[in-house]
């Protein structure tokens, strides 16, 4: 059985000085403290401590082997998206970090696979970069869950998702730029409260706006962090849809009927929550993901799913590898049958 972690992040060891490149302040950069530790900076502000697994293929493979992870999909951290910058600057950033991801994964091409970022604030540029990235070997596209006040029901973002379906690019939606910053400045509350809410907001926006009625079923779209708050409050949403016409005015079917249109990862960190997640989404729509190598990620990768007392062996097998292999078109590491690479994920 091949185990695939489909939600992990990377930072390059270094990248061009973006503040100098674009002539504006407060761009992210890497401040190395020693061979193994660094601080991601945004201008003069400390953003996040990181360690060498972010940029070292050897370290990453060592920890994957330690935890029995056969393959891993990696993507940039949202602080690199540059959605609030000029479109041409965000497009330049996307090329820089997408090429860096290809360079990193080329060192272990049967085990590491990249997802690309795009300048999502500009639909045409985003579509062009998605095409370039997929042609160069990326396995899909990671996007943030909004661009400023534009949520996923925005016409430009719907057009981008439609384009991803057309070119066969799977999409991972990752929350970023969380709401409520003024009230959540302590205790990482933006990550603990606002981040799950952002993901629920994105899923409900696609459902309640009727966007899923316009998006093709061929679109492969997955939401990070177990779908955030969505699976655990779906009953509340269905209840509102049944009893308030303003909730269902653009949504022809009960919200719970749309769970067959998207996937989520398994990063929920609790066995009971994982059981509920599988009950809501179905075993074929939960993909194993860790959020490695960050402190809020799973520290022993795979421990939750493998050690679950509430999942069957069949559910564990499907979640740990089979779903991601089909979703991203991977070849299992324990086979030379490349025909598996072309197997289509059926929404």
Automatic annotation (TrEMBL):
<keyword id="KW-0456">Lyase</keyword>
<dbReference type="GO" id="GO:0046872">
    <property type="term" value="F:metal ion binding"/>
</dbReference>
<dbReference type="InterPro" id="IPR006680">
    <property type="entry name" value="Amidohydro-rel"/>
</dbReference>
<keyword id="KW-0210">Decarboxylase</keyword>
<dbReference type="GO" id="GO:0005829">
    <property type="term" value="C:cytosol"/>
</dbReference>
<comment type="pathway">
    <text>Secondary metabolite metabolism; quinolate metabolism.</text>
</comment>
<dbReference type="InterPro" id="IPR032465">
    <property type="entry name" value="ACMSD"/>
</dbReference>
<comment type="similarity">
    <text>Belongs to the metallo-dependent hydrolases superfamily. ACMSD family.</text>
</comment>
<dbReference type="GO" id="GO:0016787">
    <property type="term" value="F:hydrolase activity"/>
</dbReference>
<keyword id="KW-0479">Metal-binding</keyword>
<dbReference type="Pfam" id="PF04909">
    <property type="entry name" value="Amidohydro_2"/>
</dbReference>
<dbReference type="GO" id="GO:0019748">
    <property type="term" value="P:secondary metabolic process"/>
</dbReference>
<comment type="subunit">
    <text>Monomer.</text>
</comment>
<keyword id="KW-0862">Zinc</keyword>
<protein>
    <recommendedName>
        <fullName>2-amino-3-carboxymuconate-6-semialdehyde decarboxylase</fullName>
        <ecNumber>4.1.1.45</ecNumber>
    </recommendedName>
</protein>
<feature type="domain" description="Amidohydrolase-related">
    <location>
        <begin position="4"/>
        <end position="330"/>
    </location>
</feature>
<dbReference type="GO" id="GO:0001760">
    <property type="term" value="F:aminocarboxymuconate-semialdehyde decarboxylase activity"/>
</dbReference>
<dbReference type="InterPro" id="IPR032466">
    <property type="entry name" value="Metal_Hydrolase"/>
</dbReference>
């Amino acid at each position: 059985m091949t185990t695939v972690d489909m939600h992990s992040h990377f930072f390059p060891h270094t990248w061009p000085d973006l503040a100098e490149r674009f002539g504006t302040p407060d761009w992210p950069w890497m401040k190395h403290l020693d061979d193994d530790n660094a601080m991601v900076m945004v201008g003069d502000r400390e953003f996040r401590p990181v360690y060498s697994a972010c940029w070292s293929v050897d370290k990453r493979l060592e920890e994957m082997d330690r935890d029995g992870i056969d393959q891993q999909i990696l993507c940039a951290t949202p602080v690199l998206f540059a959605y609030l910058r000029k479109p041409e600057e965000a497009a330049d950033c996307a090329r820089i970090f997408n090429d860096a991801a290809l360079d990193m994964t080329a060192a272990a091409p049967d085990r590491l696979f990249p997802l690309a970022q795009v300048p999502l604030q500009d639909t045409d540029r985003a579509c062009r970069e998605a095409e370039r990235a997929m042609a160069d070997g990326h396995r899909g596209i990671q996007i943030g869950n909004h661009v400023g006040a534009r949520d996923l029901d925005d016409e430009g973002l719907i057009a981008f998702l439609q384009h991803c379906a057309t070119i066969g690019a799977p999409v991972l939606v990752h929350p970023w730029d969380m709401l409520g910053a003024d009230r959540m400045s302590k205790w990482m509350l933006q990550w603990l409260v606002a981040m799950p809410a952002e993901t629920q907001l994105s899923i409900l926006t696609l459902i309640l706006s009727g966007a899923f009625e316009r998006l093709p079923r061929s679109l492969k779209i997955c939401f990070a962090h177990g779908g955030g708050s969505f699976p655990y409050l779906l009953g509340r949403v269905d209840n509102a849809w049944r009893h308030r016409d303003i909730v269902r005015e653009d949504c022809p079917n009960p919200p719970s009927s749309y769970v067959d249109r998207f996937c989520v990862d398994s990063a929920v960190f609790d066995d009971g929550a994982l059981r509920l997640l599988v009950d809501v989404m179905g075993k074929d729509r939960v993909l194993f993901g860790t959020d490695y190598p960050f402190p809020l990620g799973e520290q022993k990768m795979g421990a939750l799913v493998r050690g679950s007392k509430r999942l069957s062996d069949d559910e564990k097998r499907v979640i740990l590898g089979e779903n991601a292999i089909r979703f991203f078109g991977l070849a299992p590491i324990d086979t030379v049958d490349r025909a598996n690479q072309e197997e289509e994920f059926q929404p």
